[in-house]
Amino acid sequence: MLSLTYMAGNFTRPLVGRLGVDTMIRAGVAVTVAGAAIGATWVLLAPHGGPAVVFIPQMIIGFASGFMLRTRSRRGQRAPAGGRQAAGVSGFMQMGLGAATSQLIGHLLAGAETALPLAVVVLVLCACGLVAFFGLIRK
Questions:
Q1: b/e code 91-125 from CB counts within 10 Å (16+ = b)
Q2: Which of 19, 51, 108, 119 gives the lowest tally of CB atoms within 10 Å of its CB?
Q3: Is pLDDT at 32 greater than 60 in this prediction?
Q4: Annotated domain spans of the chain
Q5: Where are the alpha helices (DSSP H) in 1-139?
Q6: Percent of the chain with pLDDT over 90
């Protein structure tokens, strides 16, 4: 199911041309943070709510990631000289942060009775992405 929502996000490609790369990234980051906030709230309200507490917010985040995928390729077209290097560095950082976060969450969940540590880490990382986007991108 998670893969299907990610693929559904990829079908928003025509919107990138109409709305622009920055608008799509803003929307994607906002939807990602909203999905993470829904997940954290849901875990607090129903700590033993079963797999849906984890998977439904991740589906929202996956959808947003899917439609931000198209913006990465467009971003490289604006600065062809540095676009490939930037794509390589961002891919490296994404994989490295993902590996480190997986280890962190695994340690935090080892003694936990609920998915709250997962929800908090996801929310913090999504909020960091929001701050980084609005703090680093020039208009």
A1: eeeeeeeeeeeeeebeeeeeeeeebbbbbbbbbeb
A2: 51
A3: yes
A4: 2-136
A5: 2-10, 13-19, 21-45, 52-78, 80-109, 116-136
A6: 38
